[in-house]
Specification:
By secondary structure, the chain is an alpha+beta fold. The protein has eight helices and nine strands. The chain has a seven-stranded mixed beta sheet with strand order 1-2-3-4-7-8-9, sandwiched between helices. A two-stranded antiparallel sheet has the order 5-6. α6 crosses α7. The radius of gyration is 20 Å and the shape is globular.
Length: 252
Amino acid sequence: MGTHAPLDLSALDDKLLDGLRFCTKVYDLFDQIRSEPDGPGKIRLLSSKREKRLLEELIPIAQYIQARYRVGNRMKVRWLSGSQPYDAVIWTPLPMVNKGGMPRKITIEVTTSTHQFAHIARKQLHETGGSFGPKGVQIDKATRTSVSKPHVYHGREHISDLALQIVERLTAKAKKEYPPNTVLIINCETDGLIFEDEWKTAIQEVEGLAVHKSFREVFLVASRGNHSACLWGSDKQQQRRKASKHPAKPFA
């Protein structure tokens, strides 16, 4: 059985790919890195642009594609590593455009919602084998070194923290200019395990603030716990969503 050539970002950059083919390449790249010497450490520390782009852009886009790709909506995707004001473009099949009310071109912007000390907690975990998480990080003022101490959550603190992190990213992104029909994907890094009911409560808090209206759709995903949710932008987009649930016979 022949060996496959090693993958890098160039295998995905500016390539128009079927959605599932894109996902396969993304997950192959993850598996490749994980099998390299100190692969888990590279992933945990986001050691280079390769790991950072994979974890913070490519995997969230792949998760969005898997949530939307289906019979009649075999979308194509082009991920771009440049400095354009979005991270990827998705092309919808013409039958879904003509009969399902979907836009032909959707631009994708990806951002990560995380605690400000998450990178320090990951470094502590990598170097010492343990960490009490981002909220347990304390910086020694004399030595400027980080110390990990236990943090006890009270009441709804865990839920409120997640909601506030998401709102912060939404507010920041809403201030920027994006093309029409832009979908914002928020990659949510949770501090420890969050249960389904806690996830739903946090998303409800975010939705109630209505800070997501400047985007066609906001797709929230948290790999830890395998959670996802969708916030829709406007009444017009809600109508498009309903129409896409009952499309005409695809590829007629």
